[in-house]
Specification:
two-stranded antiparallel ribbon; 16 strands; globular; 14-stranded antiparallel β-sheet
Length: about 325
């Protein structure tokens, strides 16, 4: 959402990979890290509806149109798109910008439809700021859909910066919110669309080139020891640990992103996530390629391959077999 604070958008997006792969299987086997979920075609096709809430899964076809009953939600790719948009989502809008935090505490940021973002605790010394960043019924409006998102909760943070003549230049951002931040989305008419809580520990963002564009040799890096997203309607919680994302701007003006981590289904079973091929985009923001691999128990796996285009969507194979019970790619 264009006006949603970017840090929260990033954390919500991290959860996308965890939520996505929870659809991949229900059997388990033992492994050193605990029970690993077994990934099968049947289980993926059964859970494809939940998977599509993160990213549209499709099958390539010669001009066939999907039936109305198999259409995926128009906003299905929002979370994962935010994850890939690391450059914009690495800092909080109005809060953790590279030269925003000085010896003077920032003024409260008022929401478009009510509430505020404020700093209950704020300390600054020699370019580095520590404190608490709080959402108090902070409400924003999606420019495209008219949906309203209200955030509540707070996080502690440290913004390490180097003093300069034009203000501190951020070299690292660290934050935690073990109690979580709630995000409630409502339609323009006021009907609740979703309600979730995002909690995280030891989040860290390190710019590869402080106050500049990241490069292939010096990429931006985002890590999190753990994070979880709880659907407050169903009560299910999904989490991921040891998350790592790297990002840089390509010579042609596009972007390249790689991720890795361990995800967990709501029943505690785990799976490994990694980009077997970096996700890329061009200077226009169109996706050009990439693949994400989910590895489960008994040597099972699923591979999601990004379909080039302006809309984020992908095809999927499970243990080498294409998943076909899905709409045709647009």
């Amino acid at each position: 959402m264009k006006s949603t604070p970017r840090f929260v958008a990033s954390v919500c997006a991290l959860a996308a990979l965890s939520v996505a792969a929870q659809a991949c299987g229900s059997k388990s086997s033992s492994s050193p890290s605990g029970p690993a979920t077994e990934i099968t075609v049947a289980s993926v096709e059964t859970g494809i509806g939940e998977f599509s809430s993160v990213m549209p899964i499709c099958r390539k076809s010669g001009g066939q149109a999907p039936s109305a009953s198999s259409e995926l939600p128009p906003d299905a790719s929002v979370w994962l798109e935010k994850a890939f948009d690391l450059h914009r989502s690495a800092a909080v809008q109005g809060g953790f910008t590279k030269r925003n935090l000085t010896s003077t505490k920032p003024a409260d940021q008022m929401g478009e439809c009510g509430g505020r973002i404020t700093y209950p605790v704020y300390n600054h010394s020699n370019g580095t700021t520590t404190g608490t960043y709080a959402f108090q019924s902070y409400c924003s409006i999606d420019d495209d859909t008219g949906e309203r998102v209200t955030l509540n909760g707070e996080m502690t943070f440290t913004n390490t910066g180097t003093p300069s003549s034009s203000g501190p230049i951020t070299t690292k951002i660290e934050a935690s919110s073990p109690a979580g931040i709630t995000e409630v989305t409502k339609s323009p008419s006021g009907a609740q669309v979703s309600s979730r809580k995002i909690a995280f520990e030891d989040y860290a963002y390190t710019p590869g080139v402080p106050d500049g564009e990241p490069t292939s040799s010096k990429p931006d890096k985002l890590t999190a020891k753990s994070f979880s997203v709880t659907d407050q309607v169903t009560g299910k919680t999904y989490r991921q640990t040891d998350y790592s994302m790297t990002y840089f701007t390509t010579a042609s003006g596009g972007e390249q992103m790689s991720v890795s981590g361990r995800g967990y289904r709501s029943n505690g079973e785990s799976f490994e996530v990694s980009t077997s091929s970096p996700v890329t985009s061009n200077a226009n923001g169109d996706f050009t390629g990439g693949a994400i691999t989910f590895k489960g128990g008994n040597n099972t796996s699923a591979v999601l391959t990004v379909v080039p285009g302006s809309t984020l969507q992908g095809t999927m194979t499970v243990n080498g077999q294409p998943v076909t019970s899905v709409p045709v790619c647009k």
